[in-house]
Amino acid sequence: QKSGYKHYMLKEIFEEPSCVAATLSGRIKSAKVHLPEIEELQDLLASSKTLKVVACGTSSYAALSFKYFLENLSDVCVDVEVSSEFRYKRPNFDENTVLVAVSQSGETADTLESVRLAKSKGAKVLAITNVVGSTLMRESDHTLLLNAGPEISVAATKSYVTQLVLLYLLGLKIVELRDQWNERCTKLIDSLLRLPEVLDATLSRAEHIKEVALKYKDFQHFMYIGRGLGYPTALEGALKLKEISYIHATAYPAGELKHGPIALLGPEFPVFAIAPFDALYAKMKNNMIECKARKTKLVVLTSDDCEDVREIADDVLSVNSFSEQLYPVLMAPVIQLFAYYIADALGHDPDKPKNLAKSVTVE
Ligand code: F6R
């Protein structure tokens, strides 16, 4: 039931505000994070130097955002690896390790094998999944559920947004357990609670996103760039675009441009910059100017408080000004809709991209 939407993907993007509300529900009490599911892990989470995280595809980009988020707020080192690499590497961890396995479906073969490897070494496994009773949930020691409801479209959308929110809650819990809570964390709790409403505001801009997307549908290539938390968002933007529109898209940390990728840029190779008005904006601006000097078309995804971006951008997409750390959540529907409208305009079915399955149950 697409409830009047042309595709499940579109419906699922528009469900994001209510899904985030469901993910948050009951998990914030007295301005602190309430996650009884992980009570038994508290001592380890409070003391471990390193937290390991495994995931694939979009889930791995949610995990990478978690790394930036938590390392910025605490002294824990978050080690993120794609499951297909983790499972074949020397397992250099022990029973004092917590492995967080992030998988919407809970059936991704490489993630399950990573969990089995970790458990065989005595590590404790915390699953982040959307599917009750999934193999991942059954085989893990503890589970945090996304509560996003079934995701039908092959492209992950609402599961990605809710993974971000749940991982941020986990991050804040870890900060509290390590006695590193400060005023910023209290503000983040407040912002998290406002997310459903602010996501609604992003979605109300869908028509403008569509107008901009359609201008770019005939390009063969796209380069996504970002810094800090903008980098995982760039990776996810490029993945969404390539998997449903079949346009070649690549993503780089903006500071890496000079180390090679900038050689590709020119009038036929547009750039999509993730550039909210945050602590790294000035650096992003320099990178964007360098791109424009190569005569590339430039789409900038920024925040409403950024005033000077219009001077350099060909097209500006924007979200409400908000807590810097939460821009990945607010910007997710924009990169998803941008990819969706292009795929649809090119006549592709975004719900069933060629060669892809919803759950990758084989290696
Ligand atoms: C992209 C996408 C995939 C999945 C990946 C992991 O839109 O859906 O990249 O994110 O296959 O799937 P899960 O999260 O089910 O383990």
TrEMBL record:
It is found in: Cytoplasm. GO terms for cellular component: cytosol. One of its GO terms (biological process) is fructose 6-phosphate metabolic process. GO terms for molecular function: carbohydrate derivative binding; glutamine-fructose-6-phosphate transaminase (isomerizing) activity. Coiled coil: none annotated. The keyword Cytoplasm applies. Residues 41-180, 212-353 form the SIS domain. Keywords: Aminotransferase, Cytoplasm, Glutamine amidotransferase, Repeat, Transferase. Catalyzes the first step in hexosamine metabolism, converting fructose-6P into glucosamine-6P using glutamine as a nitrogen source. Homodimer. This is Glutamine--fructose-6-phosphate aminotransferase [isomerizing]. The gene is glmS. The chain holds residues 244 to 606 of 606 of the full protein.
